[in-house]
Amino acid sequence: MLDKIILYSIKNKLVIGLLTLALAGWGTYSLTQLPIDAVPDITNNQVQVITLSPSLAAQEVERLISFPVEQTMATIPEIKEIRSISRFGLSVVTIVFHDDIDVFWSRQQVNERLAEARNQIPDGIGNPEMAPITTGLGEIYQYLIRPEKGFEKKYDAAELRTIQDWIVRRQLLGTPGVADVSSFGGFLKQYEVALDPDKLRSYNLGIADVFTALEKNNQNTGGAYIDKKPNAWFIRSEGLISSIEDIGKIVVKNTSAGVPILIRNVAEVRFGYANRYGAMTYNNEGEVVGALVLMLKGENSNAVVTRVKERMEQIKKTLPEGVVIEPFLDRSNLVNRAIGTVEKNLIEGALIVIFVLVLFLGNLRAGLIVASVIPLAMLFAVSLMHLFGVSGNLMSLGAIDFGLIVDGAVIIVEATMHQLGLRSISRRMTQAEMDIEVYDSASKIRNSAAFGEIIILIVYLPILALVGIEGKMFKPMAQTVSFAILGAFIFSLTYVPMMSALFLSKNPQHKRNFSDKMMDFFQRLYQPIINGALKRKMLVIAIAVVLFVGSLFLFANMGGEFIPTLEEGDFAVETRVLTGSSLTHTVDASLKAGEILMREFPDEVKEVVGKIGAGEIPTDPMPIEACDLMVILKDKSEWKKADNREELAEKMGEALEVIPGVNFGFLQPIQMRFNELISGVRQDVAVKIFGEDLDVLTDLSKQVAGIAAGIEGGRSYRSASNRCTY
Question: CB under 8 Å to 391, separation ≥6 — which residues?
């Protein structure tokens, strides 16, 4: 079978050449369409149900909202687990499905049961809704809106939030690939009717009367139309409220004398702000408003960020004077750094392989033929990656080994050159004779080469069998390497024999060159070693056994981690104040931390943005005593107080210790989300304690924290308790 393929490729050079060009074109197109990201998205197949209930404590939220939603969703088939978080005013229920279930089918199942869940929740305390179709790593673009210098008094936090919700967010929602935009910080403006109990009592009115009047006097109605030939006059009444004055003029009741009692007679109508569960700070300048752009699940993050940037340029033209939009976390920066690292490594690896091939083969043509397999195999791999939905990232592209790719091609070309060197004729061979020589040499060695490549592919089969988070992380790597080796295998059967027969020198006379002299040198070194090993077999076996046992000991004690830490370029400092602290206290702590970092590290820190509590779409429901301090760093070449990320984090942690009652944990934005997606917590090591009594669990968590404080290698320890159910 393999011999027939080789023979066909040599005899039909034009066909193989055209097919190779077609494959290169397909690969180039696939490269432009390939989803690009920094790391694989390890988010499981989940649907979140979010319920806001501003008036309920955590215990009531769990009992009246979270539990009914969990109970209703439990009947859905193909569920892996259901978990929930209940906080003051907020319930987040996460339904996790098996990975092979279609996300739209799972959302349909959840949506069908939401009606039943709403019936079980008491009226007026919450309306459960599904979160956007995004993932744990879907926060691809984060920005803040703040006033320029001189406009701080004109635009307060409420005005900035209005601009975000009504100008910026509405225009971003039409961007392809954007699932939603979660507003963060500021004050959500609302109309308030502050009742005067004494005036209500004097008019013999109750609160229900005011509610009824407000509800019935805020609507438009239609009245068909009047046919007045040649025109038709449509009838409509306008009753929608459009201003504070309209609210004050609403009639609550008429007195016995027919005098109307208006809202303004029994209450003060004013602008107010909704209860908020989050805030955003900027450096030490105070509160600002921002948002998180959530990417649609399965989209190309690099392409979506590009579209968002283009839309942002249009949005900036519509902003009021004195308001600016500044992105502080942009996934494309990380993607560019990661892909730049991959490109650098791939180019350097390819050049090294080409140099070694030319050096050891001693023939420029042979080296270039083998080296040309590298880009062709890469394009073949990219084509299959696009076909099977494998994204290009640091894990998938960075694992490609060019030595494995060119292995089969080297064997074919080297065997051909060896056979040509054994020819005794002195004349130049014809093309037909060259075809026969290439076929004979390739067919003799092809089975051995194929067996070696198959062994390499078999090595990756266990990785392809991984499931869950491990599978999502490492399967793209195994798939990409397998695609590249498969492509190299195909080219070694078709392209390499064809190119060898066409371009290798047809002059069989061999002249000794530097390569031959180099191999003679290594042969002189190797010959006595192999002869000595054959004479002392037991000694060689004993040394091998000792080395093997020693390697097992070293492997057991060398430690390990799930994946190497990726240099993201920024810090995400997990900041925690004492449990039960107010939102304003957390804001003050965030501003103090921003001031210290900006003052102590002017050459390292570009800006500090604090995200406190939960956003408008609480896919990451932090409590109000929690803050993610995003420390945006300058380029490493500008650093003066540290040489690496670990040293800088250590010095920043020491500088922040002056703030009493606040704990800081240094992570990176994606690293923090990875930890949370893997274990539900953001730190690298966590202990979960389950039980019924929250007070007992709190005491136990403090005991665990005290015991863990004596463990070597830890830096900070704390206990935390939340109402969380599984």
Answer: 34, 35, 36, 37, 40, 41, 300, 385, 476
